[in-house]
Amino acid sequence: MACYLAYEDKGAGNSRLPLVLIHGHPFDRTMWVPQLAAFSPTRRLIAPDLRGYGASPVVPGITPLEVFARDVAELLDELGVDRFVLGGLSMGGQIVMECYRQFPERVAGLVLADTFPAAETPDGVRARAVTADRLLREGMRGYADEVLHKMVAPYADAEVAAHVHRMMTATSPEGAAAALRGRAQRPDYRGLLRRVAVPALVVVGADDEYTPVADAREMHAALPDSVLHVIEGAAHMPNLERPDEFNAALADFLRRVDD
After folding, report:
1. Measuring CA to CA, which residue among 14, 69, 34, 11 is closest to residue 249?
2. How many beta carbons lie within 10 A of that of residue 225, not counting itself?
3. Which residue ranges in the chain fall short of pLDDT 70?
4. So what's the pLDDT on residue 4?
5. Model pLDDT for residues 191-207, shown as the tens digit of each residue
6. In whole angstroms, what is the distance from residue 67 CA to residue 46 CA?
7. What is the 3-state secondary structure (H, E, C) of the chain?
8. What is the predicted pLDDT for the residue at 14?
9. Which domains are seen in the chain, by residue range?
């Protein structure tokens, strides 16, 4: 399956550790455009569309995080990438945690943006099922309209908000619903974080309602070797809302991992 994922692969041939970036729900690889532009001149960057999202195949039903992680591993096998820095935002961050659980020996550093490690609550399981049913019944637009200004802050740049809205409305309802159902089944990664043996960067938007700063601080405290960066003037997608600040924090972290 993974060899059929759509993906960006920029900067091949650079000697530094590749950076692999995993998008969140319900987005696609274009959410990483500012990072691809900033870093690909000096580092290989790989950003896939997860199954069910973007230009990748749609697989209805239930897609657990462990399946997404296997797809990532198989894609990187296809591309001949053995060791890399791995980053993700929101659901992408949880997929990063699952990747580290499955193949920690391949991961040289973790970037966890606007995400959290806890298992789903019973209320959360029910809410994700209700949302999945709604997306299959109504499509993506109503949902996208409702959550846009939680994904990006109400004061976000209009072009950024429009990009985020386009990603959401272009997503397959079947793929999004399958991911929601699978994400509801995720394990608790808090114990895993305490055993992470590589450096980690925790990033969060100061005005993020989905994954508040308190969640980021808890992850930072759990990780043995981590840096926390809170980005002012951003909500759930600081890499798009405040790309300069996000990229500066990421550049500092990558220099440390490279050393």
Report:
1. 34
2. 12
3. 1-3
4. 87
5. 999 999 999 999 999 99
6. 18
7. CHHHCCEEEECCCCCCCCEEEECCCCCCHHHHHHHHHHHCCCCCEEEECCCCCCCCCCCCCCCCHHHHHHHHHHHHHHCCCCCEEEEEECHHHHHHHHHHHHCHHHEEEEEEECCCCCCCCHHHHHHHHHHHHHHHHHCCHHHHHHHHHHHCCCCCCHHHHHHHHHHHHHCCHHHHHHHHHHHCCCCCCHHHHHCCCCCEEEEEECCCCCCCHHHHHHHHHHCCCEEEEEECCCCCCHHHHCHHHHHHHHHHHHHHHHC
8. 87
9. 2-258 (3.40.50.1820)
Residue at 72: amino acid letter? V
Two tokens at 113? 């943006």
CA distance 24 to 46: 15
- The distance in angstroms from the start CA to the end CA of the chain is 35
What is residue 224's predicted lDDT score, i.e. its pLDDT? 98
Distance of CA 18 to the CA centre of its chain: 16
Q: Are 206 and 236 in contact (CB under 8 A)?
A: no
Residue of 139, 118, 129 lying closest to 211 (CA atoms): 118
Q: Are 27 and 160 in contact (CB under 8 A)?
A: no
Tokens coding 227: 């840096």
**Residue with structure tokens 């508040």?**
212
Pairwise CA distance, residues 184 & 181, whole Å: 5
Contact 254, 11 (CB under 8 A): no
The tokens describing 172, both together, are 């397959």
CB atoms closer than 10 angstroms to residue 123: 8
